[in-house]
Amino acid sequence: MAAQRLEERLEAAADATAQDRAIDPHVTDSRRARHLPYGRCADEADLDALHRRLLGHARHGRQRGRTANIPEIRDSVVVSRSIMARPPRPSGNLPAEATSFVGRRHELADVRRKLTEARLVSLVGPGGVGKTRLAIRMAADLGRGFPDGAWLVELAEVRDPARVGDAVLTTLDLRDQAATEPLARLLSYLRDKKLLLVVDNCEHLVEAAARLVTEVLKAAPGVRVMVTSREPLSAPGEHVVPVPPLELPVPHTALARLRQNEAVALFVERAAAGSGAFELTAANQAAVVDLCRRLDGLPLAIELAAVRTRVLTAGQILDRLTDRFGLLVGGGRAALPRHQTLRTTIDWSHDLLAAGEQRLLRRLCVFAGRFTLEDIEYVCDSADALDLLSSLVDKSLVTKEDAGDLACYRLHETMREYAVLKLRAAGEQEAVERRFADYYRTRCQRSTAEARFQLVEWLDWMNLEIDNVRSVLRRSLDQEDFSGGTALAVSLGWYWMTRATNEGIRWLDELIASGGGDAQGHFMRGFLAVLQSDPVTAGTALEKAVAAAREPSLLSQSLALASMAANMAGDRASAKRLLGEARAACDDLPATLMSLQAQSLNGLFDGDLDSVRSASSQGVRISREIGDLYSLDMMLFNHGSAMLMAGDLGESKPLFTEALRIAQRIDDRVAQYCLLDALGCHAAGSGEARLAARLLGAAETVRTGAGADILPFLLPLVTRAEQSAAAELGPSRFESEFESGKHLSRAAAIRLALGESPQVPASASADVAPLGKREAEVARLVADGLSNKQIGARLFISEHTVDSHVRHILNKLGFKSRTQIAAWMASSERPKTTPGS
Length: 837
What we know:
Helix content: 55-70%
Structural class: mainly alpha
Strand content: 5-15%
Distance between the termini: 23 Å
Strand order of the largest sheet: 2-3-4-1-5
């Protein structure tokens, strides 16, 4: 029964996807067309203008909580269920396909069938066979069957087995800012989720990936995992789907039939895209057939050959490749192993490059992640990098992608492995790797001072380059350059603070334990411990920083942080003494801001609001003047908290909203949750109970996503706010509003907190209607445009049961059509449920 329900759910997902985009005859199963009326897509375009406008009014009214003109809609619109509005897209991060997807009909069907039988499906095959493209297409087709979306975890650039869990957290947009172990936080997050996880390129991390996937499947029954790898994970419950090369063409096949062959279709598609004028004709079909057969149907090999049609005919490409293959098999026609076919094709493509192109290609392998033109010019020592890079991109040897307004590049994993061999053969590996490491150390350390004042731009750059920097950190450990590694880790402080606190701690702990402990390293370790509310570790690290510090500003900042750690530990006398010593040690801007932060935080812990207001107002002024967004964010929060605790609601809100905008700009999730909580407390104190419940619920989701614990001085404020809102709304309605807030996206929660949403959406408990709980769920999905089959898949009930619910809803409401249900949902927002249904 469970398998049957999942089958329905996956079919529903495929149906919805088919309605969402044009059908590609090379990849879609013709059976899907039968699920659509008249074998075509159906949506609001099928309605006449009046009906479209009325249905739009109904949906707009439901989304904004307004009352639509129900009699007009009931009387004027009668729309069949097959042309209801399609449901919203689920969450996820699957990339858009840059080129058309060709072939794999049988593999798609096999994977889909396997996912109904098993929760772990591994696509296994050699490099270049197209595992990643197949997995992404499958996930895109099935994504709608998973309410929490389909997520692609890319492991190709992860070299450290300990970072597999971090990679999954990052993919799911969770933060590594708290003391909780990444795996524990991941499992806690996934426990009640229904999503598809696609873990790509596992072959170099098989054991670590298998352990993580096994734990996920144990803890999260609603999660299914699809893996790509050159070998199986050998994990419990794994179902393996071999990914073979594309179907080979048969010689002397009729031209019309030949065009349907997968390998030929891929060659023709890529050749046409590359040359702009390629067509399969009777004159070239024999060469194309022989070429695809020579390349064993390997997609990467076919694409590398097809791009050469810009300057060679298919026959010329075949002749040159045949000569190369002949050398390897002694002039005979014996078949090469498939891995040798791909290597030979890459060799051939490489040998056609100019000397400068070959040199650049092999040097690019030192990049562990994405790279920019600026990176290439220095690391690869290439004055004409732009022209050479453009040529490599044109030849499909390097992939271009955009990161905001900046173009960046990466190597396909198979191409990277090939380039490493070429770099070693040229005797350049050590020199280029050293140049790579020196470049990133220099850039990171030079940017440390400016990063504080250009934080948004610096974080954008670090988000792009972090995999390369991690590679340098690992090299520092491997080569026992512990002091250089520590200096690099310290220079990434703003990244660790706002993005990956736990990861920064792991690097620093390993480097310091290996002998890289200096004043800066201990200071940063203590700073990160303070952020995690870990006073014991912070106190130990900062004591070492104070003892080793030779520079007055660093000494002052270490003492100020030690004051905060002492206060967290309840030692107020030491906190006061250390803060006095910090002020006496130095009064430059960084030291002053750290002392003011210590005074503010200590005051919040101690309830000394006058001290908080005095320090934070100075801190706001100074940080605003010098453009220090991180400090400004903290100082605004401190000042607003003091005002809130003093009951000055009017003064606190603008401070919180400005701070929240900054926290959004720098994407600091801990600051975001604190400010959502603070604004929830403000709403409760202002008599806006529903808004308060929503914001407090949203804050809890953001906080758990960052893995953080609630700040001690915030806890009593939040507790009082919850009690106040619950007293005004009633316990049941408060819980409903709180849950609704928990399900808001971060962006929606921030808009709501900033007053940028049109109004607080009503929750289910705010409405009055005669429907039971299950009927209300069905009505909601009917209004979203789902068919009975899709609703059954979504709710894990049979299509017959859904039909029964729909008939009961129609009878209870006195309606005759599904459109009337949709219109009624728009007018009454969401129905209040009656118990026991």
